[in-house]
Amino acid sequence: MMSTLSGQPCMQRLCSLASSGPSYSRHHHRLLLYLLLVLSWKSTGAKGVTVHNVTVPTPGIAGEAARLECHWSPGSKGFYSVRWYKDSDQFYSFIPGNRPEVKVDHNLPGVTVFLSESNEYIVTLRKIDLASQGVYRCEVMSEAPTFQTSFASANLTVVDVPEAPQLTGLRDKYTVGDTLRVNCTARDSHPAARITFRVNGSFVHPGSGRVTPFPTKGGMASGNPYALSTTSSQLILPLGPHHVPAVTVLCRAEVLSVARANSTTVRVEPRSSTLSFFNAGVPRCWPGLLLIVVMSALTYALSTC
To answer: For residue 151, which of 162, 138, 132 has the smallest C-alpha distance?
Structure first.
């Protein structure tokens, strides 16, 4: 039910006040006209556009496309335009009343629109890079006469993911009792990659004492916010009988939630029975002493012949 003022409908009362002549100043007339406009808009039940949210890749990957989505509803008055901004710069607009209905503002670093994959709800960027990072805002405007505006934004973080990490320092074959040492290196990532190891499927905890990280090269230390980093770590693994017949070492380089991995398998052989006999709880010098005894006995035997 419409609200009333002094027993009269509110709209009628305001109209009579607005036309009452010199008893009201120009300021009062403007205020009354504004109230009339607001009440008129509300009385029709008109509802303008509403932007609910904006979604972006989490994270975006350098060299790949990025799909930005604006989730909005037009309300009862329809919409006049959809505009996209990176930080404070507009780069895309969709206005159905124009021909062409799509307009792209170029020369914005890191932003190249894939037109065939874009419309009033979606904007697709071609091959993003680190310069594509920023806050992306979708702004939708309703039709005349209100031209009501609604907007939402989301932050796009872009990572540069390295190729599969490199494993170096491994031999083709090991023997129980040897120590395996392997370096894992992830090159050209942004931000710096986090390196982890698995041995035969089991995770090697960084605090186990078997993983030694090396200082990161490049990256933010160079003073360039887009500089790439190189990260390395070493795994040191004493080999026991349970590693026979083989050990598979997997290195995983992770940048935020994106990862690349590389693995290799090496043979591990048991010790020979002779060496096992001599090394089963006896001093290492015993084989040499036994050889001396044998040679002495042979010499004595030959001298008595």
So the answer is: 138
pLDDT, tens digit, for every residue of 94-129? Answer: 999 898 999 998 889 999 999 999 999 999 999 999
Q: Can you read off the two tokens belonging to residue 278? A: 């001599």
More confident residue, 26 or 51: 51
Q: What is the pLDDT of residues 49-88, one digit of tens each?
A: 999 999 999 999 999 999 999 999 988 778 999 999 999 9
Q: What is the pLDDT of residue 290?
A: 60
**128 touches 109 (CB < 8 A):** no
Identify the CA nearest to 200 among candidates 246, 147, 153.
Answer: 246
For tokens 């062409």, what's the residue? 100
List of residues 6+ apart from 42 with CB closer than 8 A: none
Separation CA 38–CA 23 (nearest Å): 23
Judged against a pLDDT cut of 70, whether residue 275 lies above it is answered with: no
Q: Which residues contact 56 (CB under 8 A, 6 or more apart)?
A: 66, 68, 69, 136, 154, 155, 156
Which secondary-structure segment (H or E) carries 84? strand 79-86
* C-beta of residue 248 within 8 angstroms of C-beta of residue 199: yes
Exposure string of 99-128, with b = 16+ CB inside 10 Å and e = fewer, is: eeebebbeebebbbbeeeebebeebbbeeb
Q: Are 157 and 256 in contact (CB under 8 A)?
A: yes
Tokens read off for 181: 């040492």
Residues in the chain: 305
Tens of pLDDT, residue by residue over 201-213, are: 999 999 999 999 9
Q: Count of CB atoms within 10 A of residue 142's CB?
A: 23
Alpha-carbon torsion (128, 130, 132, 134), positive or negative:
positive
CB atoms within 10 A of CB 82: 24
Q: What is the pLDDT of residues 252-261, one digit of tens each?
A: 999 999 999 9
pLDDT at 199 over 80: yes
